[in-house]
Every structure is written in C-alpha cells, then in structure tokens.
Amino acid sequence: MTELTTTTADGLHITVRMPDAHPWVRESLEKACAAEARRQMESTPAPDPAYAVPRAAELLGLHPETVRDYMRLPDNHPRRLHYVPGESSRGDRVLLSQLHDWQRRNRTDAAPIEPAAATRRRRAARPT
C-alpha cells in the first residue's frame, strides 16, 4: 500500500491509501518527486567555490604570478582581481563569482568558466 498525504492551506491533513500494483501510482509518485526535487534545487542558492591561486590561474589561462599581480593592484583599479585573503599568500582564495566578474570587466577572450569545468577531478586511489 502507498499512502499519499497532503496538507491544505487551512491545515487539513488528507491521506489516501492506494495499492502499489497500480502503474499510475508509481508513475505519479515519480513525477511528483522529480518536480519537488527540481523546485528545491531551483530555490537553493548555487555554491560559490573558492580556488587557490594556481588553480585560478589555470582556469583563466594565466601564469600564477600574473594572477597574484592582479590581486595586488589598488582596490579601485579595473583589472584588480578581488580575493578572499588567507593567513598567508598560500591561503588566498579566489571565488568563482570573482573570476566571472574579472572576466566580464576585462572582456577576456577565454570562454566563461563553468562550475562543472572548474571542479578538480579526484585521483583514483592507488592499489595496495
């Protein structure tokens, strides 16, 4: 038996029991679950990953020292690459949104960085 439960705007709880054997029940549940998952994913804010300077340089197609030079420019300079400072220069991180903003402001020829392309692939574990 499958129970379908809903609550009305007035606070009334409604539960309907149906046999699992009906293909309509299974199909309806799958559609409802998929629609709810889509709704929740659309309303959830997208993550803004942070990258170390070498990885940010790789994504921008620049040398890491060039990226660091852009990070050292004055705050009001149009080519300034804003970043999240770490405890040392090795800990400095550049957010993906800041990379996109820098690309937009500087009209680089490179294609915009996609979040999926920016994620690092994990190495397979070595057999022991």
UniProtKB/TrEMBL annotation:
<feature type="compositionally biased region" description="Basic residues">
    <location>
        <begin position="119"/>
        <end position="128"/>
    </location>
</feature>
<protein>
    <recommendedName>
        <fullName>Helix-turn-helix domain-containing protein</fullName>
    </recommendedName>
</protein>
<feature type="compositionally biased region" description="Low complexity">
    <location>
        <begin position="109"/>
        <end position="118"/>
    </location>
</feature>
<feature type="region of interest" description="Disordered">
    <location>
        <begin position="102"/>
        <end position="128"/>
    </location>
</feature>
